[in-house]
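User: Reviewer 2 asked us to show a designed sequence for the structure in our supplementary figure. I'm pasting the structure tokens here. Could you produce the per-position amino acids so we can include them in the response letter?
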């Protein structure tokens, strides 16, 4: 289990803690006077210093499938469960709720993410604007049967 040392709040309050890298769903560049990255898990957020490019490269070189999807976001491909074709968003759970976390994908990166998911045989649901709730339920059941 690989851990990442992070801080709980971007001002350093709350102290240091460790986050399992597999639990990270995406990285978000938040800038500032010192380059800072917000680490997103499905239910928490943490902070580290550095650039998005540096952290994406370091995680890739450590064997993790992080992929830049926008100038401010890098996503952990293996944690994607659902792609929204209409709004170009990635989700990290099949069934969406009010508190579901998502990451915006640049339009030109959407197809590349979809292709990478298929290359690594990652089960996921792709929703289209024309999908109704019944169709989405069928797609979720199919994805769960592949996982």
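Assistant: Here is a per-position design you can include in the supplement:
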């Amino acid at each position: 289990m690989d851990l990442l040392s992070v801080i709980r709040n971007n001002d350093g309050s709350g102290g240091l803690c460790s986050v399992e890298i597999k639990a990270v769903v995406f990285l978000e560049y938040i800038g500032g006077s010192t380059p800072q990255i917000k680490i997103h898990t499905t239910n928490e957020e943490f902070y580290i210093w550095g650039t998005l490019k540096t952290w994406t490269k370091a995680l890739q070189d450590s064997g993790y499938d992080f992929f830049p999807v926008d100038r401010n976001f890098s996503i952990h491909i293996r944690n994607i469960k659902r792609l929204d074709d209409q709004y170009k968003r990635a989700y990290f759970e099949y069934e969406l709720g009010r508190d579901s976390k998502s990451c915006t994908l640049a339009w030109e990166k959407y197809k590349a993410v979809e292709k990478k998911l298929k290359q690594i045989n990652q089960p996921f649901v792709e929703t289209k604007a024309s999908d109704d709730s019944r169709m989405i339920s069928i797609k979720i059941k199919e994805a769960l049967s592949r996982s």
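For the response letter, you might also mention the following. The chain has a mean pLDDT of 94. The domain at 3-146 is CATH 2.40.50.1020 (OB fold (Dihydrolipoamide Acetyltransferase, E2P)).
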